[in-house]
Write a structure and sequence with these properties.
By secondary structure, the protein is α+β, with helices and mostly antiparallel strands. The chain contains ten helices and ten strands. It binds fe (ii) ion.
């Protein structure tokens, strides 16, 4: 189960035992895309036990991934010139059906397509605009096309900071379909927020949400890693086709990837934690 760990080494065996204990006691973090925050919280708890002098600097290094409390969602209308938008739509329509991944139908009622070349080009072109709206220099991360259909919904969740910034572009839709955002909130560490799951009723969160409505060729820039967000089911079994362009602060590639933390911070105990975490709580594919 943990082939990558030499458990005959007493130091590694000790770290393994601590990691198991920390992860066993880690609360919730059961919502879509919660794995980063779960690993961050587990890392802080493990360091508190095995290397307490490193906790403050490790925690502070992630401040760049947190979002300023006064950030407000930006609505860009229109995002593209008419010809540019039509070209993008034509590329999407030309996608062969078999290119679409249907694995998120049960959870979201959507087919997805990761890293469509046309979206990658658009994402790079829009980097200066996103930097301006975000108030910081950003770099593109992943992107995907999301084709919601009759069963489309989006449970309440908070994204990983690899998507600190999301530019959500509406391509086509059968009707207006609000997306709801909380204000900027601190990253949940424990308690109620840490036990949010994909089945949580948003009303139970005790959070005020604000509706935003997109139309084709309009986009929203939001900070999904510090804003709870969700959508109810699409009305009347309709459809909504969206493109998600994700960005993170420039120069933060080592921070957004927990597998790099051990090397980035010179803390080998975090490599043990990462291995144990991935074995105990694998991401569903
Ligand atoms: Fe999200």
């Amino acid at each position: 189960m943990f082939q990558s760990l030499d458990l005959t080494d007493p130091l590694i065996a000790h770290r393994y035992m601590v990691a198991m204990r920390v992860l066993h006691e880690l609360p919730g973090f059961d919502w879509y895309d919660s794995q980063f925050l779960a690993k961050f919280e587990a890392a802080r708890q493990m360091l508190q036990i095995v290397n307490p002098g490193s906790v403050a600097s490790f925690t502070a290094a992630f401040d760049v991934l947190r979002t300023a409390p006064d950030f407000k969602v930006c609505h860009v209308r229109p995002l593209l010139g008419d010809a540019h938008f039509e070209t993008l739509l034509a590329e999407v329509r030309a996608l062969p059906p078999k290119a679409l991944k249907s694995r998120e139908n049960a959870q979201f009622g959507r087919d997805i397509f990761h890293d469509l070349p046309a979206l990658g080009i658009l994402q790079r072109e829009l980097t200066p605009l996103v930097s301006e709206l975000a108030g910081e220099e950003v770099e593109p991360c992943y992107n995907f096309l999301s084709l919601y259909h009759g069963g489309g919904r989006c449970p309440p969740h908070m994204d990983a900071p690899s998507a600190k910034w999301t530019l959500d572009l509406c391509l086509a839709q059968s009707c207006e379909w609000p997306i709801r955002f909380s204000d900027i909130v601190p990253w949940p560490t424990a308690g109620e927020a840490a036990t949010v799951s994909d089945e949580t009723d948003p009303a139970l969160l005790g959070i005020v949400f604000e509706d935003h409505i997109l139309h084709p060729n309009e986009a929203l820039l939001f900070s999904g890693s510090s804003q709870w967000h969700y959508r109810d089911a699409i009305p009347d079994g309709g459809f909504c086709h969206l493109a998600f362009l994700h960005y993170h602060p420039a120069g933060c590639a080592d921070l957004i990837d927990p597998a790099r933390w051990a090397t980035r911070f010179g803390l080998p105990e975090l490599a043990v934690l990462d291995a144990v975490f991935d074995a105990m709580r694998p991401v569903a594919q």
